[in-house]
Amino acid sequence: xxxxxxxxxxxxxxxxxxxxxxxxxxxxxxxxxxxxxxxxxxxxxxxxxxxxxxxxxxxxxxxxxxxxxxxxxxxxxxxxxxxxxxxxxxxxxxxxxxxxxxxxxxxxxxxxxxxxxxxxxxxxxxxxxxxxxxxxxxxxxxxxxxxxxxxxxxxxxxxxxxxxxxxxxxxxxxxxxxxxxxxxxxxxxxxxxxxxxxxxxxxxxxxxxxxxxxxxxxxxxxxxxxxxxxxxxxxxxxxxxxxxxxxxxxxxxxxxxxxxxxxxxxxxxxxxxxxxxxxxxxxxxxxxxxxxxxxxxxxxxxxxxxxxxxxxxxxxxxxxxxxxx
Length: 325
Description:
The chain is α+β, with helices and mostly antiparallel strands. The protein contains 8 helices and 12 strands. Strands 5-3-4-2-1-6 form a 6-stranded mixed β-sheet, covered by helices on one side. A 6-stranded mixed β-sheet has the order 7-8-9-11-10-12. Strand 7 (208-210) and strand 8 (217-221) form a beta hairpin. It is globular and about 60 Å long. Mean pLDDT is 88; it is low at 1-20.
């Protein structure tokens, strides 16, 4: 085992001590700017990380379409949504569009015509997705046309998406079969790197369809079976009780050879998942999903204590629950 390196006294680090004002944000393994001689993550970065963690249990809470934000972050390969900014678009920016991912994992792109694409499925540097995305969006609005926006570490005090987006604007995702939306129709020719990235992304994309009859439910196709993954806005304990009531009553099915197999948590919300036969299309799901939603609404309204059978059903659901983020 390698010996631990002794801590260097603050006066010998070669770093200027910060005695007044805020401590700058640096890399987690870099020396802390305060001059303590410790790494940032073990010094002032620890309190900064804790402060951010308290904010991000539901990073998209308060935004229109919170459930769809979660779905596009975790479930949907290729989708776009027009975004509406508070106060309107800056001069020279004809539109801002949220995208699930962009070529080469760019956090954002300012196109040649000045429009902005903001990617949702990128890593968080601050621990608060809403703050990271807001920082990227602000930089994209100011970037030179025709340039991608690189990733960077985001400070904990910056604005969040909730501060930048119009809370009254609709949020309706358009799910795509591939990533051709990366390349404008008016483009004469795509960059070879973008083309290669497009081909790789299209090859890996799982066919996905957003249901139209209920909110935030997404059908997807896999080789062995299809699935329905439904992001729900209800408090977790209340939702699990309701699902347990329906499970005990045999009322969670969406049709023959379908079953509720469990759920996962993502960004503070619960996402029930059904297994479907390969013959069941997204269109086939529409009617049974709407009928299930009616049953769920009734179960959510009940305040009666769970029966022994319902408690067993609830235990089975929680035992099959995982947390994605």
